[in-house]
Write a structure and sequence with these properties.
The complex is a heterodimer of chains A (389) and B (303). Chain A is mostly helical and 389 residues long. Chain A is built from 13 helices and no strands. In chain A, helix 2 packs antiparallel against helix 3. Chain A is globular and about 80 Å long. The two termini of chain A are 39 Å apart. Chain B has a single domain (37-302), classed as Alpha-Beta Plaits (2-Layer Sandwich), CATH 3.30.70.20. With 303 residues, chain B is α+β, with helices and mostly antiparallel strands. Chain B has helices at residues 5-31, 61-73, 96-104, 173-177, 203-207, 245-249, 255-258, 276-283; strands at 82-87, 116-121, 128-133, 153-155, 161-163, 184-185, 238-239, 265-269, 299-302. In chain B, the strands form 4 sheets. Chain B has a 3-stranded mixed beta sheet with strand order 8-1-9. In chain B, strands 2-3 form a two-stranded antiparallel ribbon. A two-stranded antiparallel ribbon of chain B has the order 4-5. In chain B, 40% of the residues are buried. Classes of the chains: A mainly alpha (389), B alpha+beta (303). The interface between A and B is large, with 63 and 71 residues.
Chain lengths: 389, 303
Amino acid sequence: MKEMKEASGGKRNLALQALGGAIWCVLAVMGLIGLYHRLRTGHDMAGYGSYVPWGIWVAFYFHGVGMATGVFLVGGMGYLRGTEGARTNESLRTAIVLSLAAMFPGLLAIGLDLGRMERGANIFLSPNFGSVMTLNAWMYNIFLLAAAVAWLLSWRKRSAWLRPLILFAALVCCAFGMGSGMFFAAVKVKPYWHNGIWPIVTLVSGLAAGAALLLFVRCAGSRAASETAEEDGTRLARRVLQGALAAYLALSGVRWMVAHIYDSGAAAIGHDAPDSTGWLYPLFGIVVPLLLLAGKRRPGWLVAALLASVGLLHGRLELVLGGQLPTEMPGLPQAFHHPRLAFAYRPTVMEWQVAALLLAIGLAVYFIGQMVNKTVAARLATANQGASR
Amino acid sequence: MAMTRAEFVKATILTGAAAAVLSGAARRSRRRTDYGDPAGEETVREIQALSAVKADESEDLLLTMQRDLARAMGKPAERRQWGMVIDRRKCVGCHACTIGCVSENKLPPGVVYRPVLTEESGRFPDPRMQFTPRPCMQCRTPPCVPVCPVNATWKRADGVTVVDYDKCIGCRHCLTACPYGARTSDFGHSYRAGAALGAGKDVDGALQGRAASYEEQPNHEYGKAWSRAKHGSPIGNARKCHFCLHRLEAGQLPVCVTTCIGRATYFGDLNDDMAVITRLVRRERAEQLLAHRGTDPSVYYIS
């Protein structure tokens, strides 16, 4: 009976793996088509313009970076505190790989968004540290370096620098997690953005997105060394996600109240003025996930993690567009006609295709990273066995 | 397991070092004023135009402003403060300045430095139309400058905010930081070779397409030849009005000033008490656009 169960479980796993592989292939092919168009025709096929210069790629960038923040904060701080489900070096390495899997696509998104990609290195060669964008870019690299060194040190039996380095990397994560909000808050002429709440919102959003990613990975089939570790890891991610989503909902509520009930003015509201569909995103992106997380069914948590991730991405897009769409210059869009000179934005097929590529790259980084983790662990185990003989 | 004191000290050292380096660099960046612009005697120009023509009170305003320009160019750049006054009472909304600017700077589709905004008010039988030409405001505290991650845009000593097309990475942060919408991105569009023959039915299709050969002729913004051939800059860059600095260097007024059929646009050195625009700013209670944003523009409007 047990053998039959195992056999059917194995078949199901194979089927799921095949399905996952097929989805990945579709994403990669779609993405490569988008990338081809982006490289071949520049920004010709993109929907943004001069009056709304940033679109979904910028939202994906901030979402990816925020997710990396959240994953590392949960994994790293859990490791330092010895929290059940995050205390082992194995779970730390998973957190590092996941944070890289979230960050690389984000950085690629912003790279593709640049008008002159080939000059991206100018941010390191000729930096203006007075710009939050520069500070963030440097902090991403400091984090990547710290995470890479922490990953290397995690294979040692004892390292005096591993734990300090994790704390340092977690603080850098907090800094650029808030830096995403600072990026907008520093634009003092845009009332919607120039607001001290954004750095907190982006940090909380990142924490929630990272916890959602960890929970998704746990629920979608990634197995820890033992069932207890598995359960503990899932519990930790679920609890952090619940807390961060609740905090995000509260912050969104406060923002909404200030803008609408206390009428801080149309310009401060941005584009998220109440419309017939405005309630969909907080309902399905935040409230429904919270309800699902309160339940005890694992598939429900998986759906909650997915919904929350999409909802939080929508929140990022809302932040990005919110400061761009209102204008204080009436008549500007009508003054000179061109599709790029409009206060409107609708992502194009090419933009979505590139977004698919970002997803595919994130998945690839995760699977390759985990494969490397397993291979190194197996080799070290073999070497240790040999040494003990 | 709680962190030990030694671990905590190590983490503090790492964090402190990173914070000190980044905050020190940020402070130094914010204080930066030297962008390598020419200054002093090397910026003094002796403009000979009109030197042989006697000034006359009844002469065309353009001639008077030309004399103002010659006087200003006789001073080092750091003692000039270029400014503009636009008399909305005189503007008839002909868009000659917009087209003159497009022509002078060889602007591609989707890039505009000086659109003219139209506002309608009142009701029949007393409707009103007011036109607002909108060049770059050349703000004294430009919000577009500090957000640039690569120091590709800065304010010159003579008050003009410029863009280094060779440095700009095209992140478009400066576009979002400008409350006037005065910066546009060059997305690399071209007018179609046959556009001048007629737009046809499909306007967008007719105006955009493969570049005509004349579009690959260089423009001369900032006194340098910029060719758009082979995806060269300024394609992919942020672009903006620069008060036709290349013309000023040659002793010519900005093209929007010379093409204005109603003489509604005044230009000159705001540091020169004798200049037409300085007198206008004082006498006519000229206003700045979106003054509440604290950008302190060098462009003034008379309504």
